[in-house]
Amino acid sequence: MATLIHDLRYAVRLLVRQPGFTLTALLALAIGIGATTIIFSVVNAVLLRPLPFPQAQRILRIEEQHGQTERTTNLTYASFIDLAAQAETVEHLAACRFSTANLTDGIEPRQVSVLAVSAGYFSALGVVPVLGRTFLPAEDLPEGGNVVMLSHQLWQQRYGADPDFIGKTIKLGSSVATVVGVMPQGFRAGYPLAGQYDLWVPLVATGNLRANRRSHLLGVIARIKPNVTLEQARAELNTIARRIEQQNPGIDPDMNLSAVGLQDRLVAPLRQTLLVFFCAVGLLLLIACANVANLLLARAATREKEMAIRAALGAGRLRLVRQVLTESALLAAAGGTLGLLLTVWGTQLVRQLDPTNFPRINEVSLDVRVLGFALLVSLLTGLLFGLAPALQLPRQALYETLKDGGRGNTGVRRAWLRQALVVAEVALTLVLLIGAGLLASSFVRLMQVNRGFDPTDVLTISLNLPASKYPTGAQQTTILKQMLEHVAAAPGVRSAGLISVLPFTGGPATDFVIEGRPPVEANQEPVADIRICDADYFRTLSIPLRAGRTFTERDNAEAPRVLLINEEMARRYWPGESPLGQRVTMKDWGPPLTGEVVGVVGDVKADGLDSETRPMIYWPYPQFPGTFNNLVIRAAGEPRDVVAAVKSEVWLVDHEQPLSRIQTMEEVIAGSVAPRRFNMLLLGIFAALALTLAAIGLYGVIAYTVAQRTHEIGVRMALGAQSRDVLRLVILQGGSLALIGVGAGLLAALALTRAMASLLYGVSATDPLTFVLIPLLLTLVALLACYLPARRASKVDPLVALRYE
Length: 805
Description:
Blueprint: H1 2-17, H2 19-48, E1 59-66, E2 72-73, H3 77-86, E3 90-103, E4 110-117, H4 121-125, E5 131-132, E6 147-150, H5 152-159, E7 169-172, E8 175-182, E9 199-202, E10 219-224, H6 230-247, E11 255-261, H7 262-267, H8 271-302, H9 304-312, H10 317-353, H11 368-391, H12 398-404, H13 409-447, E12 458-464, H14 473-488, E13 493-499, E14 509-514, E15 527-533, H15 535-541, E16 545-548, E17 562-566, H16 567-573, E18 583-586, E19 593-601, E20 616-620, E21 628-635, H17 643-653, E22 660-664, H18 665-672, H19 674-708, H20 710-718, H21 723-752, H22 768-794, H23 798-804
Parallel strand pairs: 4-9, 6-8, 15-20, 17-19
Antiparallel strand pairs: 1-2, 1-10, 1-11, 3-4, 3-10, 5-8, 6-9, 7-8, 12-21, 12-22, 13-21, 14-15, 14-18, 16-19, 17-20, 18-19
């Protein structure tokens, strides 16, 4: 212990005496360790940490599958009823469905997100409220009473965290609901549906929903019973699925019920992305270690005489190795501490970014596992970069070492290792740069995709018409028409339209059949996205009309049903002929509805710029009214300048109508590409750091080599060599290392970038342009890093160099 303390003191003195070396090494280590720990904290929160529920590993997500496809869907209400009556391997079977509601009991109406849940939902999650109770089974029935549970955040913000609020009422639309419970702080009940909710209400089957076997609306969760395996539960679910199919022939052919752990279902789409990020920071950490190892090798060259004197005074080789490793460990510990501070800042930044494709990202934090990982990484990096100088301790006779003074032979003996580290740095950097380049090229291609409309100066606002206030389609149609007329007349508004679901935000789809076509097997029925809108929607967004007409005032509830289709649907099902006048029947939304195709409009993607263009059916809202609607408003100038006027006009029609999710169409588009932008920025940051470290490493090696060869350069210039000859000599030396690294990096990138193919859009994992431009960029940076010391070498005065030697 006394020897260790002595070594630590000596190491501290050395680091303090060399502030330039120490700061450079600490910065490289902090970047490598910090970036690695930040990504591990994300992996820990998303993949490794159990869901914050008791015995979370027992919670299952139950979904439908059909045939051999891997695509899964939610359950219908009728299938959920059958499953609840027959399942014996699971308990607390529960269903949920997203909705919205209007809170109208405050100063200003507010739209809130709602999850309608069956009575067993909170038991399935194992969560109890901090105030009151959860729902009773009887409250799932239409006559069960109007009750509600509040989120902790809503209870605090809107109702002042009143501890006596249980039993009081709130106003949802025009109806009154009794508060029966308040959920714990931080409870995110959106795990089955990946969202955050303000209210929970009982899932009550009204109308024909209980018998509906076509609308797959319910997310279903359950707890697997103790002493029951997942395989047993899956076998029972498949038996129940076959029984349901036999009892309802032709409805859900080849039906299966799949069960997967709730956490696995959440993180399955993210595994590959996180793997790519983890590999990227691993490469960055290796580059940092190579950089520090090179710095230590350069410093060790100047200390060889010191080590020889230590050996002459009786220090064994093991003692010298321990001294070197102690210095490396101290450096790694300090770098790890700085990296941990960087991690604290980085995790806060990640939570603020909150990319939509990362569930549980809000749970990213420093816990025992993350701290342990940071400690382990620090120790391993200290060992990794400390071995290089330890292995290069002098083996030759002490007399030779002391006589030489560490002057000339040192560089020769260590040159191969320093050069190998530089080659490795360049190769690893190129892999990161190519990965970032592929993501950047992919993002550029994505932003060049034809949107199908003009988003300039367009504002979008979400409306929710409460069924309690507007229970009939006629009432909904009337109020929407009045709102549209008032908004269109507001100052600064050029036009206004209505759509059930905005572009690039997902939405419902339906099976359909074309009248007069040969019968098709039910499992092969075509599918189209479905939207409800008015004629001004197409004019407001400048969606082109390709054939026929759009909707008119005559397309009301009493008129024959009509519909519009997009170009993709026309191309796919009426190639080379006109679809106008054809009749299409929609099957999945209550009773089958048939309408005549009266027009074809341009393609607009439903799920995002990177999604495929699918068939789409548009219905006029008077013939298919609903509670969920979005206003699209084209302003004469800045879109947000008309918000106040639009609110006033809507509240003239209905003063209890909240206006929510107010955003420009450009912001909607930005939100749809946010996950890809996040991936590109994060990997781009890693690549930029790697490029900086590699350039510093190459510069350091060449600068050190120039210093070691000062005598040789002086001799060359004394014998007639020109400055340009020396410049060429040094640049060729560094450039050859860079080119070897670029070659090795290209081979590695060709093999490794295939793993990120699913993250790309419009470019291949071996995109030729990227594989040409990125190596050229790295080569230019490397040559610049070589030029600076080469230029200094070319200005060496031979008389001074020879006199010094």
